[in-house]
Amino acid sequence: MQCPACGSELIRVVDSRRWIAGSSGMVRRRRWCMACGAEWVTWEEWDGRVPRRSARALDRADHQGE
Fold first, then answer.
1. Phi-psi sector, 54: left (phi>0), alpha (psi -120 to 50), beta
2. pLDDT at 48
3. Would you say the C-alpha torsion 34, 36, 38, 43 has a positive or negative sign?
4. Given a cut of 50, is residue 4 above it in pLDDT?
5. How far does CA 7 lie from the centroid of its chain?
6. What is the pLDDT of residue 32?
7. Phi-psi category of 40—alpha, beta or left, where left has phi over 0 and alpha has psi -120 to 50?
8. Which of 34, 46, 47 lies closest to 1, judged by CA?
9. How far apart are alpha carbons 34 and 12 in whole angstroms?
10. Cα–Cα distance for residue pair 19/37, rounded to 1 Å
11. pLDDT for position 25
């Protein structure tokens, strides 16, 4: 994602809220550009499922402390 004001990719999500309607809904995300300070809101479709990490990613996370 790029900032609509300056085009920078240094973006931070300030707030995320789910808007549920039936079995699916939307996610509203407030975003902030760390380069120019611009703020804006994006809306994304959400199907109600929670993303899961793969077993490979979990295994790698477990071994990072060694």
1. beta
2. 64
3. negative
4. yes
5. 18
6. 96
7. beta
8. 34
9. 7
10. 26
11. 82
34 vs 5: CA distance, rounded Å: 12
Contact 33, 15 (CB under 8 A): no
Residue-by-residue DSSP string for 2-41: --TTT----EEEEEEEEEEETTEEEEEEEEEETTT--EEE
**Which residues have C-beta within 8 Å of that of residue 42, sequence separation ≥ 6?**
1, 28, 29, 31
Q: Average pLDDT of 3-14?
A: 95
- Long-range (24+ apart) CB contacts under 8 A made by 31-34 are 31/1, 33/3, 33/5, 33/6, 33/8, 34/8, 34/10
CA-to-CA distance for 58 and 25, rounded, in angstroms?
Answer: 28
